[in-house]
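Handoff note, outgoing to incoming analyst
You'll be picking up this chain. Sequence as last confirmed:
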Amino acid sequence: MVSVELSKVSKSFDKKLVLDRVNLSIEDGEYFCLIGPSGAGKTTTLKILAGLYKPDKGKVLFDGSDVTSLEPWDRGAVMMFQNPTLFSNMTVIENIMFPLREQNVPIEKALETARTLLKKIHLEERGNSYPHELSGGMQQRVALARALAAKAKLLLLDEPLGALDARLRLELREELRRFAKENKLTVVHVTQDQDEAMAIGDRIALIRDGRILQVGTPSDLYLNPRSPFVMNFIEGTNFLEGYVEDKKYTFVELVIENVYHHIRARGNFEIGERVLVSIRPSALKIFKKRGGQLFARINKIVNMGPYFVIETILFGSEKLVTVETSAREAKRYRVNEIVSLHLDIEEIKVFRYPLLGFAREVEVMA
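Most recent structure output, in case you need it:
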């Protein structure tokens, strides 16, 4: 295992700044996930950790030692991409043995080690198979075994499950975490799948436009997002514009969208201040009669399989607000029906209105 640190790391390509003074600390033996929109700088960060790119500024430290100038093969880090880079002309066991033979390990010892690793990945019956004879999940496991054979201290995963079907991704993500913990590896796992990161990461860093926006446990990011972008990226949410009408103690009274809608929320804001209110679709409750703070008309009811989404339009502002509910509850409602929406005060997140505007704050393109 190894602890990892990026200290004020910057990187540009063709005068375009891709990483901007990134600071990041990853603990020894941690399964760390890096998420963010396409083009945010995730893969560049991995390649700098691997030594495939050198930063323009800043340092890379492993266990407190500066490795910024070290070549990839001197770092004890192995990088795996979405499609495993196995040697197509070698069998599974030969692929696993390859780094050992490169280190001049005697063939008998290399073969013994490779067979032990085959058992670890539950492919002991496929040692004589070639990569094209394996499923995508099996190929990823062979690549993991080869990384262990190379005595990797740090495993760098770039969208390792992205090419797999949905069911296999669910199975293999748990296997990845178990494999890393059993073999005492430090892992940095890049993904655009927020659910994947929330399920397997000890901690998560959200990066956007080359800057780290927030680092924390899955619960930290979900329950205490620092910005509208973080909240929306972790789980899609409803955003409503408003202003502070009154304040008392730790509460504020808000006018939402227009005079028809009033809510109370927690927050430290000034009277008259413009705010952005966020409420997750899963946290909203829908009523046929008055029972909520927002009033709306049902525009659409969508069956999502395990749950339903009821799309509503607020009176006055015509703002779209979505509600997630059970199939049993959804069957009670019809399109064009007038309803009220209830917001639990503990589920409401209030942010200062973004300086660059709402659209720029929540867009996911870098």
